[in-house]
Amino acid sequence: MTTVGTLFIALGVLVLLLASSGLFVLKDALSRQHAATKAGSLGVVMIVSGAALIGGNWSWGWRALVIVILVWLTMPVASHVLARAAMRESRSKDEVSDTNLQG
Fold it and tell me: How does pLDDT run across 66-80, given as a tens digit for each residue?
């Protein structure tokens, strides 16, 4: 189980590294937050699952399950709030530039 757990942790770290590179490569805020939250939740789940496998005890499995559920419940909400804030910010910039063109 240690080998499988280590493999899960390594894959989770790789997913998080790829997601972090997306933060620098992608051009707009919505694409960046999408890369961060989707891949971030997958990476965290893989790392926590690997740690639970290495732990080898059922108590580690329950802890991992609670962490995974919390990540899956909070990441979409955080992503939605960030997306709404980015959309409002882009709309307010468009409104300011429109009034500057008119006046």
Answer: 999 999 898 888 888
Total domains present in the chain: 1
Burial class (CB within 10 angstroms; exposed 0-12, middle 13-18, buried 19+) of 28: exposed
- Cα-Cα-Cα-Cα torsion 56, 41, 10, 54, nearest 10 degrees, comes to -10
Distance CA 33, CA 19 (A): 10
**Can you give the length of the chain in residues?**
103
Distance CA 102, CA 3 (A): 65
Locate all alpha helices (DSSP H) within 1-103, ordered by sequence: 2-25, 29-55, 58-102
**6-44 confidence digits (pLDDT tens):** 999 999 999 999 988 888 888 877 778 878 888 888 999
pTM: 0.75
